[in-house]
Prior knowledge:
Blueprint lengths: L2 E5 L3 H12 L3 E6 L9 E5 L17 E4 L8 H21 L6 E7 L10 E2 L10 H14 L5 E6 L1 E3 L5 H8 L3 E2 L9 E3 H13 L6 E4 L7 H12 L5 E2 L11 E2 L2 H5 L9 H13 L4
Parallel strand pairs: 1-2, 1-4, 2-3, 4-5, 5-7, 6-13, 7-11, 8-10, 9-12
Helix pairs in contact: 1-5, 2-3, 4-6, 6-8
Amino acid sequence: MTRTLIVGCGYVGEALASRLVGQGHEVFGLRRTAADLPAGVVGLKGDVSVPGGLGALPTGLDSVVYCVGAKKRDEAAYRAAYLDGLGQVIQALVDEGQSPSRILFTSSTSVYGQMRGEWVDESSPTHPRSFAGEIMLSAERLLQGSRFPSTVLRLGGIYGPGRTRLIDRVRRGEPLARSAEPAYTNRIHRDDAAAAIAHLLALPEPDATYVGVDEDPADLGEVMRWIAERQGVALVEAEASQALAGGSRRCRNAALLASGFHFAYPSFREGYGALMEAVAEGAA
């Protein structure tokens, strides 16, 4: 039986844990509160963002997934969660003499600095324009410089059950700022993110880095207009304002597809469509 530790068993981690348990893994989920984890998951309490907040790890680990979330969106919290926390886990594995076959780190497309609608993939230059992207890139390099085989999955914006912010914006009548140029956005449904991690863990020789986004890096206006039409509401549009804070780029997922992965929600249409159906049924 494969023993897998999920560090940061939260929004994506819980979906991954359920999937791995179903595949026959022995799964350990580490987070700040170990209660209410999915069935079959062994809960571990710890906080990797705090020095000394990580206790002894389960022995004989075959794989480790590091998919934590920062406590808040500021530089100190990001550094503590993504860089220092990852360093704690790597050191603990070294100190305990463990030799997992793979550590997978969920990074972010914020490591890219392109802002003019360029296509980017795993081979594109990384020159982040935010503290978040800089810290993520530093964490990637920390892991890839360690003694352990590693894979980095650079996820786009994660949405799914309980994360209906864009649908809520349209319903509330928040305006869409018109722009002369498309404001490309990159996203992935939570269930596809979890499935992609499980898929990469199962590959005998995965690449070092993958971009984890769906197949349609769509203009934000297109997405909001589609949601408004499906909701039967009028989309409020305002005069052009500043560009997206994270830039406008189109992330290409060709490497992930070439590895044999298949999306349950290949575009925002399938993903948001399912969410709206769930909301209508009172299930989201």
